[in-house]
């Protein structure tokens, strides 16, 4: 999707006030629709009632309901209480409630919150209506204008100012869009007393020419330190090459700086895929932060920052790949890191991040990860008593209380898994029907049994100690 921002210049103050009133009514309609959706109202009932209440046409009301539903779904996906959503911004509202700012600074903050709460309007594009019926771009001799529907057969025109130096081609793009009749959505926002328009156009991508037929590039992004690990595999899933791209700029700095470098690194990944003629495989990951957990202090805040950065980076990789006709495959990320560190890190003497990218690449080709025979033997030889001893070792050794809690939780689950195998032997490689366990628990138990003793205070970077166990079936020998 292409988004173009522009400032609207009105011919007179009266026209601007008419549009501001329209934005206020639309914003109220959207907030009202949100509350009714929480109460279980359906779209048809809402659409019928809201038109008269807020004096808006059918299309504006439909778009307000759509935005309200999108906000509701977003709150639920983020595990936020939908009843506690604050339109206008929770942070700004919190500052206003505390009243720690007085005088002009407080009034300025209040105006900013009111603008975010009441200064909105959204209008979806429609191919059958040659672009957008309520907010249409029109090209005239004296410039490019936005025609805004403010009532029954009533329109206000605002000049589109989109041509400052570094973006001087924006107005030309908007003119081409107006002539082509392709659908575009328009969102109006009030900022510092001025009205800005955001034009969103769905891109038409070329036919996919680079597929997984000759292999893929698997990528894995990491929060500490910020970097991308990538691997190249052939069509059979064999490892050909690999690399790591540090991204120190994403760890700190301004929003604009981070955004620039996300595009920069996305270009690097797509360039690699294009040069090698391989599709790209990424994790289809939704990170939901639930409480503190981790291998080091501050891990929660780092994961939260990383989740936003990660999603933004993935979105840019997907967009750039589509523009180049490169296939992008999304896979389930479950246990990619654990499988990588246990199976491929010691086998190829690579880092756990590169190994995770390798698992992602193979998964994109539909390859299943068979469990090495020596690991199966090790699991059968492992006893509950040994895990109980490991639990005591962790209690006495690990100082980080959050890490200790996570280790103990994993060990307890591993003990339950071993107990289930003892009661029904011979089911190691298949899901345990009738229980809460699956074959993935095998990898988790191995991680607990062999990785935790190696480095209980932090995630290890060197897994060469596992090579003897993986290849020779030996563990703990000198």
Give your account of this protein's structure.
The protein has 478 residues and is an alpha+beta fold. The chain has 3 domains: 200 residues, no CATH class; 153 residues, Ribonuclease H-like superfamily/Ribonuclease H (Nucleotidyltransferase, domain 5); 100 residues, no CATH class. It has 15 helices and 12 strands. The strands form 2 sheets. It has a 7-stranded antiparallel beta sheet with strand order 2-6-7-1-5-4-3. A 5-stranded mixed beta sheet has the order 10-9-8-11-12, with helices on both faces. It starts with a strand and ends in a 6-residue tail after the last helix.
Summary tags:
single chain; 478 residues; alpha+beta; Nucleotidyltransferase, domain 5; 3 domains; 7-stranded antiparallel beta sheet; 5-stranded mixed beta sheet; elongated
């Amino acid at each position: 999707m292409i988004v173009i921002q522009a400032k609207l210049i009105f011919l007179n103050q009266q026209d601007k006030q008419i549009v501001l009133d329209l934005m206020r009514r639309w914003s109220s309609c959207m907030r009202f629709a949100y509350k009714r959706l929480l109460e279980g109202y359906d779209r048809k009932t809402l659409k019928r009632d809201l038109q008269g209440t807020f004096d808006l046409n059918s299309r504006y009301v439909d778009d307000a309901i759509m935005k309200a539903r999108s906000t509701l779904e977003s709150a639920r996906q983020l595990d936020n209480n939908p009843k506690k959503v604050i339109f206008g911004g929770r942070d700004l509202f919190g500052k206003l409630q505390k009243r720690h700012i007085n005088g002009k600074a407080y009034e300025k903050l209040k105006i900013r919150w009111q603008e975010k709460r009441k200064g909105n309007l959204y209008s979806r594009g429609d191919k059958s209506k040659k672009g957008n019926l309520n907010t249409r771009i029109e090209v005239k001799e004296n410039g490019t204008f936005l025609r805004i529907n403010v009532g029954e057969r009533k329109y206000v025109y605002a000049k589109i100012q989109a041509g400052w130096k570094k973006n001087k081609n924006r107005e030309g793009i908007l003119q081409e869009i107006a002539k082509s009749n392709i659908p575009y959505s328009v969102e109006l926002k009030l900022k510092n007393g001025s009205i800005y328009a955001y034009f969103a156009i769905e891109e038409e991508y070329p036919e996919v020419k680079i597929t997984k037929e000759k292999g893929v590039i698997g990528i894995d992004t990491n929060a500490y330190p910020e970097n991308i690990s990538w691997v190249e595999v052939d069509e059979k899933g064999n490892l050909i090459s690999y690399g790591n791209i540090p991204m120190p700029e994403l760890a700190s700095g301004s929003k604009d700086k981070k955004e620039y470098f996300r595009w920069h690194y996305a270009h690097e990944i797509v360039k690699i895929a294009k040069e090698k003629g391989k599709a790209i495989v990424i994790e289809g990951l939704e990170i939901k932060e639930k409480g503190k957990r981790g291998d080091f202090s501050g891990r929660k805040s780092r994961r939260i920052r990383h989740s936003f950065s990660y999603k933004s980076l993935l979105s840019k990789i997907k967009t750039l790949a589509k523009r180049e006709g490169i296939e992008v495959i999304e896979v389930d990320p479950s246990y990619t890191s654990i499988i990588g560190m246990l199976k491929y890190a010691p086998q190829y003497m690579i880092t756990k991040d590169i190994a995770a990218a390798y698992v992602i690449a193979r998964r994109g080709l539909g390859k299943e990860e068979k469990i090495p025979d020596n690991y199966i033997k090790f699991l059968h030889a492992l006893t509950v008593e040994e895990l109980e001893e490991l639990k005591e070792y962790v209690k006495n050794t690990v100082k980080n209380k959050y890490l200790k809690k996570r280790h103990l939780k994993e060990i307890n689950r591993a003990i339950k898994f071993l107990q289930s195998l003892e009661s029904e032997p011979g089911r190691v490689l298949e899901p345990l029907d009738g229980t809460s366990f699956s074959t993935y628990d095998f990898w988790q138990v191995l991680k607990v049994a062999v990785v935790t003793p190696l480095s209980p205070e932090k995630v290890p970077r060197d897994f060469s100690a596992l090579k003897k166990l993986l290849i020779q079936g030996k563990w703990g020998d000198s």
